[in-house]
Amino acid sequence: MSAERPVRIAMWSGPRNISTAMMRAFGQRADCAVTDEPFYAAYLAATGLDHPMRDAVIASQPTDWRVVAAALVGPSPGGRPVWYQKHMTHHMLPGFGRDWTDGLVNAFLIRAPEAALASYALKRDDFSLDEIGLPAQADLFDRAADRLGAPPPVIEAEDVLAAPAATLSALCRAIGVPFDPAMLAWPPGRRATDGVWAPAWYHAVELSTGFAPPRPAVGLDDLPDALKPIATAARPIYDRLAAYRLRADSFRQ
Questions:
Q1: Residues linked to residue 105 through DSSP beta bridges, in sequence order
Q2: pLDDT tens per residue across all 253 residues of the chain
Q3: Whole-angstrom Cα distance, residue 93 to residue 42?
Q4: What CA–CA distance (Å, rounded) separates 152 from 24?
Q5: Which residues contact 183 (CB under 8 A, 6 or more apart)?
Q6: What is the 3-state secondary structure (H, E, C) of 133-199?
């Protein structure tokens, strides 16, 4: 690894996952810069969706996806040798180019759709399958797999919560960086690298000091009727990605 050629990690997640906690973990590494959802403003500007703090988000980032993509393949912040980019898969609209992702190490953070939907419904009351990100996540996974000739790394949120050291060790080995025990704990509070939207979305992670225990499972019958068709459509996509997820012992010597 070098400052001239950083390891750029694009971690692709849907909303209401442990994506911000994962960003905290990588942010604890002395060798790592982090970037928080760089396409959010471009996504909101293109879709017109009314998200919390919409105007502030749009004012805080470039709204041209080309400008964002060019920055993400440029020099790393502070010249750090590792650059962790937290991406939401649903932000990658069909009109946004994806060629830039071919130069990054693409990894995928998944969560059971029933649990993701139950959590997202607490923040927004009208959304589609595309907005929980699984269709775009599968497309991005397939693109990376076709280029590599092998499945790219996939981690499951519940695996991280159940065995953070082992699962993050497996992830680090898969993406080509050494595991750092500093990734397992962090001080509470907000970070300068957090998006301007943090007050609307990051309350729980701001109180955290590490990965929480696994949450109780959410089943289809636990969801409101309006969300059940979305969960049913999402489940086969999730299952296909979950078949490739790294296990804690995936890289045991």
A1: 9
A2: 444 689 999 999 998 899 999 999 999 999 999 999 999 999 999 999 999 999 999 999 999 999 999 999 999 999 999 999 999 999 999 999 999 999 999 999 999 999 988 887 776 666 788 888 999 999 999 999 999 999 999 999 999 999 999 999 999 999 999 999 999 999 999 999 999 999 999 999 999 999 999 988 999 999 988 899 999 999 999 999 999 999 765 544 3
A3: 9
A4: 22
A5: 25, 26, 28, 29, 168
A6: CHHHHHHHHHHHHHHHCCCCCEEEHHHHHHCHHHHHHHHHHHHCCCCCHHHHECCCCCCCCCCCCHH
Could you tell me the residue ranges of all domains in the chain? 7-242
Distance CA 229, CA 240 (A): 18
According to DSSP, residue 217 is labeled: P
Tokens (6 digits) for 69: 């993509």
Nearest residue to 27 (alpha-carbon basis) of 159, 154, 180 = 180
What tokens appear for 197 in the block?
Answer: 């939207």
Both tokens assigned to 247: 């296990």
Gap between the Cα atoms of 53 and 61, Å rounded: 13
Tokens at 211, concatenated: 């990965």
**Which structure tokens are listed for 81?**
């040798």
Decide if domain 7-242 falls under CATH 3.40.50.300.
yes
Nearest Cα to 41, choosing from 78, 88, 94, 97?
88
Residue at token pair 């396409």: 39
